[in-house]
Amino acid sequence: MSAQVDNRSGLEALEKRLAEDLSLLELPAKSWVPERTYEGAAVRDVVVIGAGMCGLAATARLVLGGINNVVAYDAAPAGLEGPWVTFARMETLRSPKSLHGPALGLPQLTFRAWFTAQWGAEAWESLDKIPKNQWMEYLVWYRQVLDLPVRNNVRMTGIRTAGSLIALDLEGAETGRVYTRRLVLATGRSGLGGFAVPDFLKEVDRQYWAHSADEVDFSSLAGKRVAVIGAGASSMDNAATALETGAASVDLLIRRKEMPRINKMTGIGSQGVVHGMYQLPDAWKWKFVDYTASTQTPPPRGSTLRVSRHANARFLLDCGIVAVKEQGGELLIETTQGLLRYDFLIAATGFTNDFDGRPEFAAIAPFIRSWSDGRYTPEMGAAREGMLASPDLGPAFEFREREPGTCPILAHIHCFNDAAMLTHGKVSGDIPAVSAGADRLVRGITASLFAEDVDSHFANLVAYSTPELQGDEWVDSTPLLNKDNAL
């Protein structure tokens, strides 16, 4: 009990220091965006869809910048936003514990400050990697200490144009239509599409397979033969979870002849990469992303060892999948290594930017410009399908129109999620640079809202009439000067 009291005491002291820092910086800034209504309904300045790490960082940066007529909606219950305690099945984060994450340049808002306030500097030094559940606890505190306007159990079901505004259809804890001037899609790894499902699985009954981001009942796999597709982090984490919950065997079906071993982008991480990637010519952007896609990111060492410590796990390399079919209650998987039989398969095959399959985006999807619409040219290198589908974004993550004039509202919808990587670099999906991404996003939104309201701001300038001088601070000596000149 005393340790819990000490932890709370330390956290309260941290929260007090954070409040003092915000006060010294005059944050949050005063509200400055004029209020609007539409057909009698209040209009939000910004709506953020998603209250995971990126959504929280974006919302916090908006509020701190004086744009406080904002709300973030998340379909998940409070405390379950993002992947951390749902489909992220790793034991720890792979990111170094010292990264600032969504702290927005505020030292007292970092994970390190939160951790040491409760468990001390010695515990911090002995900490290797951040447990993923503890990271979620930190994000919950982050939301609470900044008093961010998040509403849970609310799903966006549609986007429409309403004059110069964006109309959003909602269902769940808040149902109906809301209006906003700007929309931020902080939808995480799923980006604008959803699960990437290989063609060979599309006709297979879902009772025999799951995507790695599905809610999987691993206890039902006890005693079963399980296959996992891929050699990435999620492949290892799902394989390990199946093994730890009693699977009879787990095979990792890996198309490559060798496991990827080097995390290239982490190796060159710098502020130059964070801030410079967006400014590069498109050919260089393509070159960077294409190279890292071809070399691939290795799974974390700890996650791989978590699998290989089990005698009933196998790593099957150079094992591409040709076809999958269900027969007699089992899966027959034809591979380049021969025919294999399993009871269940987990596809750790990532996500897609194919937003045409998302009904909530149906009204805008046909008009969104992607890299395949002329931004990519063959001189850049191989035409990768996943990269070609990436949205062609503007400087504040805003969508661009495929054909100018067909859907102007796209300029007010911002893609602050993993799908932005090709245009902006890794600043809207991963921990290391999320604060830089949120700052870039909000600077752009701030500038566009000010420009849109420039008449109102100029009128305020003209109307402002609070004097600093009362008229009794000086004596007009001009009459005396005139009298002296007359002599």
Structural features, described:
The protein is of the alpha/beta class and 487 residues long. 32% of the residues lie in helices and 19% in strands. It has 14 helices and 18 strands. The strands form four sheets. Strands 1, 2, 3, 4, 5, 6, 7 and 18 form an eight-stranded mixed beta sheet that branches. Strands 9-16-10-11-12 form a five-stranded parallel beta sheet, covered by helices on one side. Strands 13-14-15 form a three-stranded antiparallel beta sheet, with no helix packed on it. The chain is globular, with a radius of gyration of 27 Å.
Considering the chains and any ligands shown, give keywords for the structure.
487 residues, five-stranded parallel β-sheet, 14 helices, globular, disordered N terminus
Structural shape: globular
The rounded distance between the terminal residues' Cα atoms is 92 Å
Strand content: 15-25%
Residues in helix, %: 25-40%
Structural class assignment: alpha/beta
- Total strand count, please? 18
Quick rundown:
With 487 residues, the protein is an alpha/beta fold. The protein has 14 helices and 18 strands. Helices cover 32% and strands 19% of the residues.
